[in-house]
Amino acid sequence: MADPEVLCLGESMVLLSPRAGQRLATAQEMALGVAGAESTVAQYLADLGHRAAWLSRVGSGPLGDQVLAAVAEPGVDVSYVERDPSAPTAVYFKDPAPEGTLVYYYRAGSAASRLTPRYLDGLPIASARLVHQSGITPALSAGCAETATALFERARAAGVSCSFDVNYRPALWRAEDAADPLLSLARQANVVFAGLDEARHVWGTDTAQAVRDLIGSSITVVVKNADVGATVFEPGVSRGTFVPAPRVDVVEPVGAGDAFAAGYLSAWLRGAEAAERLLLGHRTAAFALGSVSDHADATSLRRTEEPTT
């Protein structure tokens, strides 16, 4: 089997959510699923025809089995995931509230939170075209933060491109604690994804241009503005390229940002122009927005030709 084209590092969890029309506090039945930002990116990349691998750790019990099976289902390589017999697989709950979906995490002390840079030893980083991770990982533990930094350092040393999604999670850390670590990782990447709302909350940047100016003009910066659209700023180009978001009947917004990143990166790996990258990002995100799960089968978006290798 050929080495993976894209490596995605991060924690995935078992997801429990009430059946339709129920709230978490009174639910009698729960639906079980699997979700995680980076594994979702890997799943959509696999849908789009890329050799994607998910890098992480899970517990050795049946919940770990659930995670591995779900992530692997669309063709993601999970052979590099470690099993930990002494730490659990993380779990989280969704609560569909009138003001929006509320999320409750139970991930402290999880197998993935025990990641250290040693986990990276022996991984096929040098043969990949791209490594991807998000700002969730450094929030999980000191070891995870060190691993996130080490992944980009090793990739850059090998001449491998790096992608970073800010993915700020206020349930995991305060904005003042997250600001510097997230900016440091963003400045190590070749491609950065940031939501305008999260950038405003963490860094105080009010416009897409301000986000680009903060991260740096030598980096490709993609700024998403919810259902308005997204702007990409490329190195050597002073003005950004904006593509509006299509109208979508939203079933569940969680996972759409990861789908967008996967679509954009798929087009980027093919060498597509800026507007085409943003368009495929929006089209892939539409699949997630129309589904109750983080990952919805998007293989219909796959191009007839194989991605360039």
**CATH topology title:** UDP-N-acetylmuramoyl-L-alanine:D-glutamate ligase
Structure class: alpha/beta
* Relative helix content: 25-40%
Elements, N to C (H/E) = EEEHEEHEEEEHHEHEHHEEEHH
The number of E-state strands comes to 14
Overall pLDDT score: 92
Total separate domains: 1
Please write out the topology.
Layout: E1 6-9, E2 13-18, E3 30-35, H1 37-47, E4 52-55, E5 57-59, H2 62-72, E6 82-84, E7 91-97, E8 100-106, E9 130-134, H3 137-140, H4 142-157, E10 161-165, H5 175-186, E11 191-195, H6 196-203, H7 208-215, E12 220-225, E13 229-233, E14 241-244, H8 256-269, H9 274-289
What does this structure look like?
- About 30% of the residues lie in helices and about 25% in strands.
- It contains nine helices and 14 strands.
- The chain is globular.
- It has helices spanning about 35-45, 60-70, 135-140, 140-155, 175-185, 195-205, 210-215, 255-270, 275-290, and strands spanning about 5-10, 15-20, 30-35, 50-55, 55-60, 80-85, 90-95, 100-105, 130-135, 160-165, 190-195, 220-225, 230-235, 240-245.
- The strands form three sheets. Strands 4-1-9-10-11-12-13-14 form an eight-stranded mixed beta sheet, with helices on both faces. Strands 3-2-7-8 form a four-stranded mixed beta sheet. Strands 5-6 form a two-stranded parallel ribbon.
- Residues about 305-309 have low confidence and may be disordered.
- β5 (about 55-60), α2 (about 60-70) and β6 form a beta-alpha-beta unit.
- The chain has a single domain (about 5-300), classed as UDP-N-acetylmuramoyl-L-alanine:D-glutamate ligase (3-Layer(aba) Sandwich), CATH 3.40.1190.20.
- α8 (about 255-270) packs antiparallel against α9.
- With about 300 residues, the protein is of the alpha/beta class.
- Keywords: Kinase, Transferase.
- It holds the Pfam family PfkB.
